[in-house]
């Protein structure tokens, strides 16, 4: 998932009907160059997770986006996903790496402090997510945390943009490899496709300024 340009990572709504959401996801991916889609259904039961993974995974993959599942290494393997995004401590990350490596992506995150990010980074995930996929409300990454990480570490970061479009601008300016988007896309008044085009335009302006 390494890249020289800021790319998008889409995080699914926490509650969805897979069959109804599949065309929405397809249209959104067609409107942008997304690196990956992370399936995050919060506290849904196993049947709901499996139905969503088997329905949405092929949609993401056919659009050229890696399909990851949140905290379900078992499902990542059985549903032919491209990887898993894990939250928790180093032991959780290590267990996911044992289950999924070397064939699948294993990213880690929910880091709102430098200390938390460093602890996970020491164990060599494929990326670190800065910000938090909270059970209630997502918590955005801060510009300072993103800038600090990008200056010191080789491991790519996904910076979660959870609050408003100004957050996207500041996070991209911080040098994030990827920007993670959820409600800003799925709840955008103009629709998800317009939202991802807006995010790509912001990323493009950052690289024009850096040139």
Tell me what portion of residues adopts beta-strand conformation.
Answer: 15-25%
Number of strands: 8
Q: What's the average pLDDT?
A: 93
Number of domains: 1
> CATH fold name, please?
TIM Barrel
- As laid out across the biggest beta sheet, the strand order is 1-2-3-4-5-6-7-8
Cα radius of gyration in angstroms: 16 Å
- Uncertain residue ranges: none
In this structure, how is the largest beta sheet organized? 8 strands, parallel, barrel
Please provide the ordered H/E string of secondary-structure elements: EHEHEHEHEHEHEHEHH
Top CATH class:
Alpha Beta
Structural shape:
globular
What would you call the structural class?
alpha/beta
CATH architecture: Alpha-Beta Barrel
How many H/I helical runs?
9
How far apart are the first and last residues' alpha carbons, in Å? 22 Å
**CATH homologous superfamily identity:** Aldolase class I
How helix-rich are the residues, as a percent range?
40-55%
Give a structural overview.
This protein is α/β, with parallel strands linked by helices and 211 residues long. The protein has a single domain, classed as TIM Barrel (Alpha-Beta Barrel), CATH 3.20.20. It is built from 9 helices and 8 strands. The protein has an 8-stranded parallel beta barrel, surrounded by 6 helices. β7, α7 and β8 form a beta-alpha-beta unit. α1 runs parallel beside α2, α1 runs parallel beside α9 and α7 packs parallel to α9. The protein is globular. The mean pLDDT is 93.
């Amino acid at each position: 998932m390494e890249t020289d340009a800021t790319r998008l990572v889409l995080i699914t709504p926490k509650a969805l009907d897979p069959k109804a959401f599949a065309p929405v996801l397809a249209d959104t991916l067609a409107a942008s160059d997304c690196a990956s889609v992370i399936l995050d259904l919060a506290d849904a039961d196993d049947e709901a997770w499996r139905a969503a993974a088997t329905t949405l995974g092929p949609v993401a993959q056919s659009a050229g986006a890696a399909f990851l599942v949140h905290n379900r290494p078992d499902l990542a393997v059985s549903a032919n996903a491209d990887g898993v995004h894990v939250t928790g401590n180093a032991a959780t990350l290590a267990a996911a790496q044992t289950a999924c490596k070397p064939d699948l992506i294993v990213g880690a995150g929910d880091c709102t402090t430098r200390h938390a990010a460093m602890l996970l980074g020491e164990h060599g995930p494929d990326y670190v997510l800065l910000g938090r996929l909270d059970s209630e409300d997502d918590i955005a990454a801060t510009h300072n945390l993103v800038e600090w990480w990008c200056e010191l570490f080789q491991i790519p970061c996904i910076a979660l943009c959870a609050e408003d479009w100004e957050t996207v601008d500041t996070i991209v300016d911080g040098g994030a490899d990827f920007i993670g988007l959820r409600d800003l896309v799925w709840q955008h008044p103009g629709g998800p496709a317009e939202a991802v085009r807006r995010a790509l335009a912001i990323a493009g302006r950052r690289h024009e300024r850096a040139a």
